[in-house]
Every structure is written in structure tokens, then in C-alpha cells.
Amino acid sequence: MRFERAAVPVGFAWSSPFARWQGPFAELSSLDLAAAVTERALADRGLPPSEVASLVFGWTVPQEGSFYGAPTLAARIGAGSVTGPMISQACATSVACVQAAAASVETGEDGLQLVCVTDRTSNGPHLVFPAPSSPGGTPRSENWVMENFRRDPWAGKSMVETAERVAAEAGVTREEIDAVALLRYEQYHEAALANERAFQRQYMVPVEVPRGKRRADVVEGDVGVHETTTEGLAALEPVVPGGVVTFGAQTHPADGAAGLVVTSSERARTLSHDGIARILATGVARVGKAEMPKAPVPAARAALDAAGLRIDEVDAVTTHNPFAVNDIYFSRQMGHPVEAMNEHGSSLIYGHPQGPTGARLIAELIETLRRRGGGVGLFTGCAAGDTGAAVVLRVED
Predict the structure, then answer these.
(1) pLDDT (tens digit, 9 = 90+) per residue, 116-163?
(2) Which residue of 8, 85, 340, 393 is 20 to 30 Å from 54, comparing CA positions?
(3) How far apart are the first and last CA of the chain?
(4) Cβ of 48: how many Cβ atoms within 10 Å?
């Protein structure tokens, strides 16, 4: 989908730190986290909630009260007259939310579209479904997070099995996978954390986690990133016997929240002194059964085609890469070096809360381009159901 008017004011995309599941955010509702992060992000940017015209709210793991999620969240951040859609599309949720917000702007809406995306994979809900005709009326049940991690109900495979399938088909070796995992860790450690996390501090919103009535812990940076070395990776056994993917070369579930403001390019310029990030296009795609790591490629191509651009015209690329296999396949298919992607690390290293992961990587993409003085950026990633989603944007004065 191509856009002509929609833009993000540079500096108006943000994320909480990501915390490995069962970490400091484990008992904090993702709705509470979204409210706290969004309220602080708007305040830090001097944007009154009364300026918000519509809220696009994304999530994938239900929480208590999420039935009323969007209007409740709007009211809690001080925008009580605002409502909007709630969107859930697995790991493509952030792109779907950005696309919905940009489409509103494209139709002539100059008001501020606020995108909030949040998830908690920790302590996922256990759902019970009535089955009155079953023996004894025994209900069916589902652990929302764990059972959907284990198996795609249509393809019949787990997510890691999709990575193994693509690795085998493409001839990706264990050595290549470990090398990319180490590269992404080094990019994160050496670039994102350099100078006391100067890059992350441009977009990351600290979170206060209540610990009783009188105190709170402040989480300022990602929690749960494992030190990665060549020797450590080589010592790991494959997740699937006989395979090439280890726990060191795949992401970990996490908790977090992210967001951004989308409006017209004219209005965006009034909000930021650092320029705007024009949303040029989005793209979605679906690949063959149980081939999820391939999906970022056709999604990226769809977005680039809609924007009228080639991959060699792109200045920066970020990817949601739950497996190192994803980036290797993307590099081979698109002719784009793995070293030229994810300059500040990626979800492979700092974790994956599902819904908000894409929004954080879009924020990182914008900040990367701002530091370079502008340019074209591509975000792409895979999602459950062998789906891919991508965004192309251009940072300019």
C-alpha cells in the first residue's frame, strides 16, 4: 500500500525496554505497561493527550480488561474522548497498526493518530472453551502463549521447525547461523549500548515497576540479553535433534510496549525540529506452508514496489528475525549483506514481545537514519502463519 501524506515526526517513535519473560514485567499487565509508557512518552515530547485524534491499539496476548482495550487505554493516558480500532496480527501487529494509522491520514485526517502496541508473553492466559457434547461435558482448554508457540494449527509445525525447514531447503549451515547470531550480538553490544546507551536513550522510555505501596524499581534498559561468544554458540545443541538452530540463534519471548505518532507531513513538521519520517509504503505477504522465515522477503518486495524503490536505494534495514536463518535467507534473496542490516542489533538479541517488536524496530530505523542525516529505511519481519509485513519510510528535513 502506497502513501503520500502520512509521516512520523522524528523523535515521536518510542519503546519500553524489553524484558525476558518471567522478568521484571512478568506481573505487570500489558495494558498497565502501555498506559505508563505512552503517558511518559507523550509528556517527554511535550505532546498533550488532548491533541490525539484517534488511537490504534495493538496486542496479541489477551489481558484482563483487554475487551475494552483501546477506549480504556485512551482514557487512562488522558485522551478520554478518543477511541479507535484494536488490531491483533501476531508478530505483524505493529505494521498492521502503522498501516491503519497511515490510511486514516491518507484519507484526509490531519489529526494525530497515536499507535500503541503492547504484549506480555509472561504468565499467558489459560482459556477454557465449553464443550457440552463432549464426554462428561469436559471443556477444551488452551494455554494461549505456550500452545501457539508449539504448533501452528494449520501447518502442524512449531516455529523452530519452520526455521529448520527453510535452512535445509536453502542449504544454510550451522556455522553461518552462529556467525549471524554473534554479529547481531556484537552490533547490539557495541553500537546500541555504546556511550552509556546513547542510541537507545533517544527512543527508549524507562518503566517504573511497583514493588509494594511505597517503592518501585526503574527498568531503564533491556533485561535478559545473554552474553554471546563463538565458543558459547558452538557448544549449544540444536533445538531439534539433527538440526542447525540452537537457542543461541533464536530470539526469546519477552514483555514490552512501543508506540509512535502518525500524522500528515505538514503537521509532523510542526511537532519535530529533527525532520519527519515519511511513510512511503507497507507490504504484506504469505509464503508456503511452514516456511515462515521466507516471508520477510516478499513482504519487503511488495513494500519496495509500492514505494517505487529498489533494495539498492535503501540506506538502512531493520528486521524482526526470530531466527538467524531469517536474515541469511533475506540477504541471499535480496542481495543485501547481513552486515548492512540491524546496525544496532535486533529482536534476535533483545527479545520478542510479539506485538510491539515491529514498532521498536521502526523506532530504531528512524533513529538510525536521523543519525545519518536522513535516507530511506526498510523494516521487514515474519509473523505466525507464514506471514510477512514490511514498512518503507524516508527520513528528511
Answers:
(1) 999 999 999 999 999 999 999 999 999 999 999 999 999 999 999 999
(2) 393
(3) 24
(4) 10
How many CA within 13 A on the CB side of residue 397? 1
Where helices occur in 77-118 by DSSP H, the ranges are: 93-106
At residue 108, the pLDDT reads 86
pLDDT category of residue 87 using cuts at 50, 70 and 90: very high
Q: Rounded to an integer, what distance in angstroms lies between the CA atom of residue 318 and that of residue 131?
A: 44
Under a CB-based contact definition with an 8 Å cutoff, are residues 19 and 252 in contact? no
Can you read off the three cell numbers belonging to residue 300? 519487503
C-alpha cell at 361: 524496530
Confidence of residue 212 (pLDDT cuts 50, 70, 90): confident
Go through the domains of the chain in sequence order and give each one's CATH number.
Answer: 1-127+142-397 (3.40.47.10)
Q: Between the CA atoms of 105, 385, 33 and 187, what dihedral angle is there, to the nearest 10 degrees?
A: -90
Alpha carbon distances (Å) from 188 to 197, 206, 237: 10, 18, 24
User: Would you call 309 exposed, middle or buried from its count of C-beta atoms within 10 A (0-12, 13-18, 19+)?
Assistant: middle
Whole-prediction pTM value? 0.97
pLDDT, residue 213, reads 78
Alpha-carbon span 176 to 26, nearest angstrom: 34
What number of CA atoms fall less than 13 Å from residue 301's CA on the CB side?
12
Q: How confident is the model at residue 51, as a pLDDT?
A: 96
Mean pLDDT for the chain? Answer: 97
Ranges of beta strands (E only) in 2-91 are: 6-9, 13-15, 19-20, 52-58, 86-87
